[in-house]
Specification:
Strand content: over 45%
Structural class: alpha+beta
Shape: globular
Helix content: 10-25%
Number of helices: 3
Largest sheet: 8 strands, antiparallel
Order of helices and strands: HEEEEEEEEHH
Strand order of the largest sheet: 1-2-3-4-5-6-7-8
Length: 145
């Protein structure tokens, strides 16, 4: 009797990176009409794009990953997380690719406001920042705390 082992999401993304052609996009999910998930393969990177269709405002989250492995054995690691809503863009850059514990940089671009750039020790510190959570709550039109 054989059993099917589940494949982790990271293993699946690494497999797609290895087998997709540069400049192509592949849909991964749109089962329930609430969100669409796709991946875009660039030369040495892959973007995982998640679009929420049932929220007001509509949101798009892009996780940009770089290949830190080899061509034959890719190992994707997160470099940038980008949240896009109609009136703002929130970009979080990892100081060390794939490791948010080594420091991150927040870039916040809002319509009719000056851009904000702040450094944090890690993602937990960013989530604990009351100012950022208040701004994010207003952008998303929902209470986060």
């Amino acid at each position: 009797m054989s059993y099917v082992r589940p494949v982790s999401a990271e293993d699946h993304l690494n497999y797609l990176f290895k087998h997709m052609e540069v400049g192509t996009e592949r849909k991964l999910e749109n089962f329930n009409g609430r969100r669409k998930i796709s991946v875009y393969r660039g030369k040495d990177y892959m973007n995982k794009i998640t679009q929420r269709l049932d929220t007001d405002p509509n949101m798009t989250l892009i996780r940009q990953m770089r290949n830190i492995g080899t061509k034959d054995e890719p190992k994707l690691a997160t470099q940038v997380i980008n949240l896009t809503v109609p009136k703002a863009d929130v970009l979080v850059f990892f100081d060390e690719i794939g490791n948010s514990l080594k420091g991150i940089t927040l870039n916040l671009f809002r319509r009719d406001f000056e851009p904000v750039k702040k450094n944090y020790a890690n993602l937990a510190e960013l989530r604990a920042d009351k100012w950022f959570m208040d701004v994010l709550s207003k952008l998303l039109k929902r209470k986060l705390i």
